[in-house]
Amino acid sequence: MTNKMTNKIHLNTLISLTVLSVALSLTACNNGNNKTASIPVQKQMTNLGEVYTDKEGMTLYTFNKDVANTSNCNGGCAAKWPPLIAADNASEKGRFTIITRADNSKQWALDGRPLYRWVNDNTSGDTTGEGVKSVWYVAQTVPVSKRNTNVTTNGVSHKTTVLTDTSGMTLYGFTNDQSKPAGSSCNDGCAIEWPPLMATNSDQDSGDYSIITRDDNSRQWAYRGMPLYRFVDDNAPGDTVGEEDKNIWYVAQATPVSKYHTDQGTVLTDTHWISLYVLDNETTSNLLCTGGCLNAWPPLKADAGDINRDDYTIFTNSNGEAQWAYKDKPLYRWKNDSTPGEISGHGLAHPSGATWIVAKP
Predict the structure, then answer these.
(1) What's the pLDDT tens digit per position in 27-40?
(2) DSSP per-residue letters across 127-159
(3) Where do runs of H (alpha helix) occur along the chain?
(4) pTM to 2 decimal places
(5) Sequence-ordered alpha helix ranges (H) in 81-124
(6) Which residues contact 157 (CB under 8 A, 6 or more apart)?
(7) If 0-12 CB within 10 Å is exposed, 13-18 middle and 19+ buried, where does residue 3 land?
(8) Which of 46, 67, 253, 225 is nearest to 148 (CA)?
(9) For residues 119 and 116, what is the distance between their CA atoms, to the nearest angstrom?
(10) Which parts of the chain sit beneath pLDDT 50?
């Protein structure tokens, strides 16, 4: 075989090997890009509404003791709340970012909030970590979270779970919105002091959360029909400075309950600001309003996915319905109240000798 032919064979072999090498490199690169672009998160409907889960359907949570882009859950905490680890070649996308943990591993975060699983969730869609130690809450697909914090109403300070934005800032409801169903009465200068929780054009209603259209055609999030706002004088997560401001602003609670100012002071209402009542001698274990009483005094019913929160608990009434109670006292509306803040049922007598009184925080 001549040197010329030998060189040609060697050249062809080299070219073939080079082409194969490039092809393998491109394949590896493409596989890497696919892996990089893939966020190990999906959406799933649960008893708490639509939440983010890992690819196996296990619910993801956020930790109120974390600060933006930093995890404070390490050691034993991380054993109970395993972080959602990001691959070394993972890339951030949209609301999902990547933080570096204390051990230099990478962790996925939602809007800067590190994401975790909970060891006591056993099956896909479980949400048993919700509210644990009043600092752990499910990662909702809407831009809303929760926080257990101090709220002072009627001069009394108490702990309750409020809705927040994803940075932990308290959200509020505006009782004047009752005059504008499915809209907002807070515009112009009001909206500067009370910034609405805005929705993007691609956002869609999800469970208890719906989207209203404002006067300028922008979109705003609402909770059970109640538009949501922040307050400019709240400076840190958990602040509730706006509570009872001008007697028309109240924190948005993580229950279907709001507040309204009446001549009896601030009272509890549903999220449409219709007053709620209790019987002074009734408890969840000693029910007095049964049978026809429940027609005159419609109970504040709990939805299938609702859970106990702080002083708000759920029990089964005499009709077999799930009903809300506040500090162990069942909550009702009065059939003759038709406008927000009306309390025409206050002081009425019950056949048992008990008295109906408007519920107060």
Answers:
(1) 333 333 333 448 99
(2) -TTTTGGGTEEE-BSSS-EEEEEEEEETTEEEE
(3) 3-37, 76-80, 189-193, 293-296
(4) 0.87
(5) none
(6) 150, 151
(7) exposed
(8) 253
(9) 10
(10) 1-37
